[in-house]
Input
Amino acid sequence: MTDPPTAAGPATGPAVTDVHARIDAVVKLESARIVAALMRVVHDVGLAEELAQDALVAALEQWPAAGVPENPGAWLTAIAKRRAVDHIRRSRRHDRKAEQYAREQDQPPEPAAERDDVLRLMFISCHPLLPTEQRVALTLRVVGGLTAAEIARAFLVTEPVVARRIATAKRTLAEAGVPFALPEADDLAARLSSVLEVVYLIFNEGYSASSGDDLIRPALCLDALRLGRLLAELAPQEAEVHGLVALMEIQASRSAARTGPAGEPVQLHEQNRGRWDQLLIRRGFTAMLRAREIGGTPGPYVLQAAIAVCHAQARTAADTDWAQIAALYGALARLLPTPIVQLNRAVAIGMAAGPEAGLEVADALLADPALRDYHLLPGVRGDLLLRAGRAAEARREFERAAGLARNAAESAFLRRRAAEITVPEPAGRTVGEASAAFLARDDLDPATLRSYGQTLTRLGRAVGEGLPLSSLTPDLVSRACVVAWGDAAPRTWNRHVAAIRSFSAWASGPGGERPFGAAAGGLAPASATGNAGVVAGRAAGGAAGLGDAGVFAGGLRRRPETGGRIAALAGPDLDRLWERADVAVRERTLWRLLHESGAGVRAVLGLNVEDLDLDDRRARGGAGRVSWRAGTARLLPELLAGRTRGPLFLADRRPGPGRMPAEADRCPDTGRGRLSYERAEYLFKQATGATLRMLRPR
Amino acid sequence: MRYLMTTRPTEQSADETLYAEMGKFIEELTAAGVLLATGGLEPGGVRVTSVGDEITVTDGPFTEAKEAVAGFALVEVRSREEAIELTRRFRRIVGDGESVIQQVFGP
Output
């Protein structure tokens, strides 16, 4: 075997590091084509990627001394293809095929065939068989040419984790025998949406990264844009592809304008439009035109791009065509009925048809548990309320939003907005003040007070600590409770209800000094005067005595408890659960461990890596002993990925500066915090509709 | 990051092969999402000079043709090395001559 000719002469010149930098550049530019060309020969993405890697090693050995070849991409492809043929010959099964490839390999493929190969490669690396995180890693690796280390840095995980994701993905694809072919027509839409999802996810990971500390992350936007633009050439007949490209181009056009000098976020309507990148905007418009030319019913990406186009077309914020945007959000909400889309729709309607119309949509979202801790809901409501002239409520919503925001800069911004609103001091005590006074009682034991404290903190967050106690109506309290604990176990629900009843009774009693009047609506008829309400409130309080619901807990009912036992998930449900491929390894491990150990959720989440004894399949944590069986044991090495200390289950992201957890709850290597009970419960709920405690065996 | 590659004019005239090869190269880079804009520039042009309050407008051609720019390409790449690699490929197609690569800042 002879290598292809290299450019004349050994190097008088380039230093080895320069050669490395050049190789890196070549790989990033050519990776997709090299791996795709190999796939054509070996039909196995894992093998193709290894062969490409081998060719790279050959280049690293030869180029520093022999000089970089004239066409480095072609050189790498040729070397890798020869190794592929050798590999096939060694396997001795496809001799004729190998000979045929050996003859063909030096002929450059037709450009059209080459393009199709790259498209096939993208469909494979984004195969729905793979969990999202594996799709993302594999696509960036084989199509984007990024190293595992680069991907790890961009997604704030360790390199072994990425390497393992890529390896698992390759193995899954090989075992499933996924063919190197374009999807069949009836499968195309689903397969394409899987590709688009990966590209947009990569883009958002880069776009939503906090500014500054790591330049790799904004570079992800470029990688996603490249993938999208490439895809648009490969599948030009798909409107949604152009829609996604248009959306990314226009969003990327604002990247310079969307943060202020101190890194604080700048809202769209306050951005300096002169800093929007007109070149990218025009590219976005062009992509949008291509999508429109294809026609058909607009999909979610085309609709989102159309919204982005509306903003980009407005010379000033005041010129924005909000009616059009509201209509587009309406169409999007029919395709993607998520609360976030609805919230955006509320903003657009508020701008197009006035704050009251916007509030109507936004208020409906208050009952959605998914937005319970989402700061933008009170943020948006604050805006709308302020414009509707309801200043006191607006201020409370901004305060509530500031308390919920995770990003310090954003929280400060919301607090400033609240402070800018001057309203007369509310008469009487606020909910926050009353809670504090209630909890300062000395006639309750510490455990009860702690439990009450949790309930009242959540209540305060839901209705706003600054709400005057006199405005706390039974309706408000009922809604807050349903959103917060409506889907909790009856026993949990009853605990919180009892706490609120106790608070309510205390507040309406002599010690509570609650200003009686306006808000006793739950007990008095709607037509009753304030005076009648007082009488009714007092009468009820007096008659029922201790533990009475009081004036604002009137809408709350206890729920029957099912003998204190929670229904456990049954065999078939569990089998299906263990087989789910769309779930991240962290969740699969957690669920298995909870089931196999029968331990409490908090005990399991509290485990640290150094507590584990992998050989004996047990751990001794702060909350006692936890042991597991084969299912967990199989998953743990992948989850650990070489980690030796810190929390076993980690959160997805590094904590923001305002929410830094204690050192014991942080991974010393990646800086990520311990996975919270709330988040783990939420993810399980999303995936199964059940609660984590139902994983305990009967 | 973005780089602007500018190319100095040369004496050689382009033949059909070169046009075909350049066409293919441009198509490939556009498809890969790397090439944002490209174009050729007229020789000469108009020179606008300001000294104090005075602004002078002069029509070309100008004598110091070496400094002139004959064409440009605006590329979006991950690194300087990628920009250099692309320019190498460009130079290999167009033959003897000179190109300059500069990073573009802003907007």
